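In this section we walk through a basic example: taking a raw amino acid sequence and producing a predicted 3D structure, encoded as discrete structure tokens. The instruction is simple. Fold the sequence below.
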Amino acid sequence: MEEVRIDVRTQSPERIAEAKRSADLCFRINHTNPTTPECQELINELFNNSLGENTRISPPIFTILADKVQIGKNVIIMNGFQCMSAGGLTIEDNTMISLNCTIATNNHDMYDRYVITCKPVHIKCNVWIGVNVTILPGVTIGENAVVGAGAVVTKDVPDNAVVVGNPARVIKYLDANKFKNKE
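The resulting token sequence is shown next.
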């Protein structure tokens, strides 16, 4: 996966406009009663009406570039979700993301810190991400994987793996034949 580099000193007008749009909508979402239709309409607007069917996102949420985020159907994202999405984020169907999770698809160049280095994050189908997990740029989380609470995911997670710790490491594999309700 190739790294994309963005110099924040010379951002495109489109990127600046999307960052402003995302910030405005996040603010409005986070200051609207979360049980109202208005809040859900704002969340849909933030993600350009592209959320999959039966997807639920509970505020507060924060994302810098929502147009770089793709979310499938039957996804649940709990309160406190933060996403630095310049590199692109894909969350596939039937994924559950618990409280206070952070996904970073971008970082800074070590020597020129005004340059953002970006790599996409891909979360495959039927993943469960525990409380306070951090996922770093360029990571793919495999199908059916479980990421334990507080983990810091620095490298790819295989299908059916359970990972924990900082940095996250595989502690066991789940039997893929036992999963129910994947559709």
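Looking at the output, two observations stand out. The radius of gyration is 16 Å. The chain has one domain: 4-172. In the next section we compare this with other chains.
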